[in-house]
Design goal:
Layout lengths: L1 E5 L2 E3 L5 E8 L7 E7 L6 E6 L6 E3 L7 E6 L4 E6 L8 E9 L2 E4 L3 E5 L2
Parallel strand pairs: 2-11
Antiparallel strand pairs: 1-3, 3-8, 4-5, 4-9, 5-6, 7-8, 9-10, 9-11
Length: 115
């Protein structure tokens, strides 16, 4: 199983980025998918999650109204659209696939918000 994140980078405050997490080696459409982030010296934080069919989403309060999670079960990919980015959004962003007691993590992609 592989989860490969992409789309991170350096962006100015107020800017946007779209992260992707491409999955392989699993039946993607069965898995609940989440995005987490981890900043230096801080605990890993759940950012957003989406149900297997994409019908239900949840967000951390800190990103509600700014971030949007979506998935394409044909392309086996989950996305995180990030708008109105703030310096405090700077972190490594990781995706996680969950099915019952099975979970897989990607390696992460760095997002830096700075002027």
């Amino acid at each position: 199983v592989q989860l490969v994140e992409s789309g991170g980078g350096l962006v100015q405050p107020g800017g946007s980025l779209r992260l992707s997490c491409a999955a392989s080696g699993l039946t993607f459409s069965r898995y609940f998918m989440s995005w987490y982030r981890q900043a230096p010296g801080k605990e890993r934080e759940l950012v957003a999650s989406i149900s297997s069919a994409g019908s239900s989403t949840n967000y951390a309060d800190s990103v509600k109204g700014r971030f949007g999670i979506s998935r394409d079960n044909i392309k086996n990919t989950v996305y995180l659209q990030m708008n109105s980015l703030k310096p405090e959004d700077t972190a490594v962003y990781l995706c996680k696939a969950i099915l019952r007691n099975i979970e897989y993590w990607g390696q992460g992609t760095q997002v830096t918000v700075s002027s």
